[in-house]
Structures are given as structure tokens and as C-alpha cells.
Design brief:
By secondary structure, this protein is mainly alpha-helical. 71% of the residues lie in helices and 0% in strands. α6 packs parallel to α8 and α9 packs antiparallel against α10. It is globular and about 65 Å long.
Length: 397
């Protein structure tokens, strides 16, 4: 922490001194660029937490390198180190005066720290600097929800939906407020609308200045647009690393309630009540949409209930959160096979088998066998069953 404070003092002195003529938003130091490229290579493989070291070295090489602070802050956010992330976003904001990006990102970090009053200040500062109104409404909704002002949160998210009617994230956030107010029917309707937007391929998140700044910096410094889990939200082809969905700050109580719902779902499924299990998982992903395993469980229950279209959406959300989720790849492969998407199904099954252990293959085989029995004319489902049977002797136990 002492080193970090000393760095901030040095940064402040450099800014007062005019940054020695350096153009904002770049670095002339080849070593800093090399370290940045190392971090970029890691995030393209979903290794956000591990990338922090490379971006830290880029900062050490050039303390006036704004994008190194931005990406280091994002990496620390993935590691739940919100205090250090907030310091990084402060540095980024200082190096980009007049821009809303740093304040907007720092507001999210403040929420993660459990300091909604400070987050509100930063969101208002970002708004004054021209941040997209829809993003500000979403952020203020998060602030109010953290303060347990659920009616105010509901109003903010509703305004956000008016401004960005094709944003799944807005509907998911409003569902959290509705659930807190006891409106389970409204929450279920909003989650269904979010799923429908994702499945339709017509989802459109509001313009996010921070994400655009990250994309622009990446393209300039690395030489191509961001790919894999680092990329801006987009529908990923089968086998490709899906984009990470926007993170939702979930408090401890929400996490505990989501865990209880998932446990109840598992118990109901064991008793044969798959529809009841799915309802519990709908609650779990509403309470904690950042948990990949909840989306995977939801997809499995949807598949068992003969809803492969819905299952595809859940599995894709799961893989967007954890691209190395073997259950997500295998489940998605089975659902795609049921939809007769032969090539995509094969790709996902093979991706899953590279990551899977025996119990996961056994689970996928049971699901595929059930789907094949329901669709006896499906050649791709028969092929998937045969491939999984062969894999039983190939994967580690």
C-alpha cells in the first residue's frame, strides 16, 4: 500500500508538471508497451486475475500510462480487490481530465467496496462529464439497491429501460429490485425478457464510454480489436470464448439467498420436480447473475423440460462467465444437437471433453440419451451419445 501511495503522489506531481509533454492516452516507453501486450495476451484467454502482474509492471515502467491503470483496475475488480481498483481508476481519471470513464468505473469499484454514497458521487460526476444517461440510471439503480432503497432502484432501472429498451442487463437489474420488493412475478417477467433479448440476437447494451475507451486503447496498443472473454458483449460462435457479461455487484445476503435457492433446486430435482427446480434456479440467477454454475444448472433443467432454445441462452451466459466450464460446453452441445445445429454441437462437445472429468461426461451422456430417446430420428443426437460413450474411457476420473 505504501508503494501505491507513493506512486499516486508521483503521478499527481507529474500531472501538475504537465506530463512532460506526453500525449494523454498512450505511452512512448517500449517496455511499458511490452508489459501491456503480455497482459493483453492473458485476458484474451480469460486470465484477467493473472494479467494484473503484467499491467502492474507496465505502470512501473511508465507511471503516466493511462490504459495500464485502466486494465490493472479491471483485473483487480475480477479479483474482488475493489480498493486497489478504485485507486487505479482515480489515476486513469486524473490522466484523462474532462472524460467520464474513470469516474464511472470508480463508481462501480466503490459499490464493490460497500461504499454506495461514494459511488453516487462518482456516478454524478460522470454524468456531468457526459456519460451515457442509460448507464447513469443503471449505476444509480445499483447505488439505491446497495442502500436497500428498492423503490428508488426500481424507478432508476425503469428509466434505464426507457432509455435502453434492448438491454438485457437493465431487465436483470430491475428484476433484482422487484425481487427485493417481493414482486416475484415482475422479476420473472423481466428475467424472461432479458433471456428473450439474448436469444434473439437483437440485444443492445447502452453505449458504455468506459468499455469503448478500453476497446479503443486495446486496438491502438495491441493492434487488433479485443477478442475472447475480454471483448465487448457480442454473440459468440460455437466454440469461441463468449464475451463476459457485465458484472453485477451482489451483496453477501444475495449470494447466500442464491445458494439456498440452488440447494433447493438440487433437492427438488432429486425428487423429480424439475419444473420446481427450474423456478428455484430462476431465482438463483436473478439474485446472483455472476455465478456460472447457476446458469449451467438452469440450462440443464431447461433441457430436461424440453426447452433447448432456453437452455442455449443459459449455457451461453454460463460460458461468458467461465469459458473453461466443461458442463457448460457439454450442455450447450447437447442443446444445439437437439436443435439440429450439427456443426456447432460437435464443436461444443469436443470443447467440453477437453476440459471434462468422468462425472461430467456421465451427466452429459444421461442428458443426451434422454434427448435422443425423445427424438429417435435425430442423427446428430445419436452421434453425440456415441461420442460421449466413447469418451467415458478417455477422460480422467
Amino acid at each position: 500500500m505504501k508503494m501505491r501511495c507513493a506512486r499516486m503522489i508521483s503521478l499527481a506531481a507529474a500531472v501538475v508538471g504537465g506530463l512532460a509533454g506526453q500525449a494523454l492516452g498512450d505511452t512512448s516507453d517500449p517496455q511499458a508497451r511490452a508489459f501491456f501486450a503480455q497482459g493483453a495476451a492473458m485476458i484474451e484467454h480469460g486470465q484477467w486475475v493473472q494479467s494484473a502482474g503484467a499491467f502492474e509492471q507496465a505502470i512501473n515502467a511508465d507511471m503516466q500510462f493511462p490504459e495500464a491503470y485502466l486494465f490493472h483496475g479491471l483485473a483487480r475488480m475480477y479479483a474482488n480487490d475493489y480498493q486497489e481498483a478504485a485507486e487505479d481508476f482515480t489515476a486513469y481519471a486524473v490522466l484523462n481530465p474532462g472524460k467520464p470513464w474513470g469516474w464511472q468505473q470508480r463508481a462501480v469499484a466503490r459499490l464493490g467496496e460497500g461504499r454506495p454514497e461514494r459511488a453516487e458521487e462518482d456516478f454524478r460526476r460522470a454524468a456531468a462529464l457526459g456519460a451515457a444517461p442509460a448507464n447513469i440510471q443503471r449505476g444509480m439503480g445499483d447505488v439505491y439497491r446497495a442502500e436497500k432503497k428498492y423503490r428508488e432502484a426500481l424507478a432508476a432501472y425503469t428509466d434505464g429501460i426507457r432509455l435502453a429498451p434492448r438491454s438485457p442487463t437493465m431487465y436483470q437489474r430491475r428484476a433484482l429490485a422487484e425481487l427485493a420488493l417481493g414482486d416475484k412475478q415482475g422479476a420473472a417477467a423481466d428475467m424472461a425478457q432479458a433471456d428473450a433479448l439474448v436469444r434473439s440476437g437483437r440485444e443492445l447494451e447502452p453505449g458504455d464510454e468506459a468499455s469503448q475507451a478500453m476497446e479503443d486503447a486495446y486496438r491502438r496498443l495491441v493492434g487488433h480489436r479485443m477478442a475472447g472473454p475480454a471483448a465487448a458483449p457480442a454473440r459468440a460462435p460455437a466454440g469461441a470464448a463468449p464475451a463476459a457479461p457485465p458484472a453485477v455487484v451482489v451483496d453477501r445476503a444475495g449470494q447466500q439467498q442464491a445458494q439456498q435457492a440452488s440447494q433447493a433446486a438440487a433437492s427438488l430435482a432429486q425428487r423429480g420436480d424439475v419444473a420446481g427446480a427450474l423456478r428455484q434456479m430462476d431465482s438463483a440467477v436473478t439474485l446472483d447473475p455472476n455465478n456460472a454454475s447457476y446458469w449451467t444448472m438452469r440450462g440443464a433443467f431447461q433441457e430436461q423440460l424440453g426447452k433447448p432454445d432456453d437452455a442455449v441462452g443459459s449455457y451461453q451466459r454460463s460460458l461468458g462467465l467461465d469459458v473453461k466450464n466443461a458442463d457448460g460446453h457439454l450442455g450447450l452441445g447437447v442443446a444445439l444437437a437437439e436443435l439440429q445445429k450439427t456443426s456447432d454441437a460437435r464443436t461444443e462437445i469436443e470443447a467440453g471433453l477437453k476440459l471434462a472429468r468422468l462425472p461430467q461426461v456421465q451427466g452429459a451422456l444421461a442428458m443426451a440419451t434422454g434427448a435422443a430417446n425423445a427424438h429417435p430420428q435425430s442423427a446428430i443426437l445419436k452421434e453425440v451419445v456415441a461420442r460421449l460413450q466413447t469418451a467415458l474411457s478417455e477422460v480422467p476420473r
